[in-house]
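Quick one before lunch.
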Amino acid sequence: MHYGTLFLTMCGIVGYTGKQQAKPILLEGLKRLEYRGYDSAGLALSSPSPTIQNFVIQRNAGPVQGLIDASTKIGLSETTGIAHTRWATHGVPNETNAHPHRAGNIVLVHNGIIENYAQIKEKLQHIGVQFSSQTDTEVFAQLIEFHRVQILKSDTTLNEEDAVLRALKKAMSEVDGHYAILFMALTIPGKLFGVQNGAPLVASKLKDGCLIASDIQAIIPYHNEVCFLPKGEILIVDENHFETRNLKTDKVSVPKIERMDWTADKVEKNGFETFMLKEIFQQPLVVADTLSGRLPSDESGAFIWDHFKAHEVLWKNAKRLYLVACGTSYHAAMTAKYFFEKWARIDCQVDIASEFRYRHPVFETGTVVGVISQSGETADTLAALALANQAGVSTFSICNVPSSTISRESGFHYPTMAGPEIGVASTKAFTAQLTILCALALDVGRLRGNDDLASFQALARLPHDIDRILKQSETFIQIGAKLKDQKIILFVGRGTMYPIALEGALKMKELTYIPSEGFAAGELKHGPIAYIDPNVTIVTLAPRDECYAKTISNLEEIRARGGHIVAIGTEGDEEIKKISHEFIGLPASAWGTMPILSVIPLQLLAYGCAKALGRNIDKPRNLAKSVTVE
Ligand code: M6R
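Model of the 5-amino-5-deoxy-1-O-phosphono-D-mannitol complex:
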């Protein structure tokens, strides 16, 4: 059976049409979406006057700032435009492959992948269509334009808009893939057209026009009422109109508006030098928000979940749990395996989403699949969710974006309340995921007759404890800076500290580009110990938990080989302080909450090291925030 292939690019789209000058709005929007991709950028602007002379296009290789610098002299009066920031998939990131792409009358930006682009391109080339780029995007633009010309030739009574809409429908019926596109037709000034097939497109009606984007972060500074364009509808907007038209029935509708509680200040740096640092410091609040209204309010000890009955049924019948995710979210899943197995006594398997669908997982009565994702749009995770949904087993998501595809397509949704996370390296979303997973597993444990009062009490104290850790942030940043000349950095831990070690290594490698590896401390002697010499740093997680004595033995093994040890343990632990070169003491907490506290210094170590190396902390090279390609 084919479960659908999710191939999306991670680009950012913005469009505006209205009374204001479009360029500043588009550029501001691109800046906010740059985390989605930053290898080239472009915009196209036009005026509501039916002459093609009133059209200008500018594209640049490199980040959005290059486009801003290159476009100072253009677009001073144009009030309609589309813009794009790219994460290259088809074609190198140069000016020619940057969006928008123009094909005759059609100027288009695109987020996604056209899977059968090569076949369509070949057909079009065969009949004389000339291409200027290597992208799949241009194929879509050329196809719409090709059909528009044919349709107008065969029915000269048709007006331009009807011809464009028919051409769009025809093109969509030929194109395979998952995408969102936004385009203008130069002969229909002032109008923008958008469709989505698996990649989000959000629109908002402003007082003096309309704003469209691939992500609400470009819209929120202007308005908090948005419409998530559904599949199967064409968005058609101009200064006064804001409507959708059904692709099959042609029925025109007023888009369904949703009010967002994300505000503009949530997507600003608010005085912090980077978004990542701001997000690290937001963690006490984020954890408090994630727990808010969930902690038990009566003697029963039951956590409070939306749709409580459905939640209870789901977990009462659960026999086997698969937790599936990618990257940092996968590390949250790995940590949660320890929670669910200890407290809930449910057999829990954890999978990297890109592997899950190819390993023929066993689905049977009582199987529950939980997917974890910050963005809610990660292609591999979505594919895993689709597989589970098709198999008919119960699904749930732990997700930070309630309007995302993953939140909407999972049977049950446990929201994290981290707010928009802009830094490409995930921090606050991870602590929010661990918080909700800890609460959930504790609660399922309670349902099955197992309580862990210490972890429950420590959960309620978490915001306070994280706050205390953050007071030492400068020290952690300085220790991190000292690691800048390391050739390799190792992270080790046992039990719940093993996935946290993996997360520490991921933060370090993605921010600093220094090879960094995480291991289960007990595995060191089975190979990785060969790395150890006096020039190698080993960050060791050793809280006073059930694995403490064993981890100390591993530390001794490292010390005997001259390794440079940075130890993260419990405040006042003199034993570990003596055998390490640097010691970071964390507040004593419980088994379930210690992983959440332990990741905070690791985030700051990576931050300090990346800062000392002069890295682009919010936008590390080659990465993008929302990984929507398989
Ligand atoms: O949005 P998701 O949580 O599904 O994203 C998963 C990973 O792409 C993400 O966690 C990635 O590993 C981060 N860059 C890590 O900092």
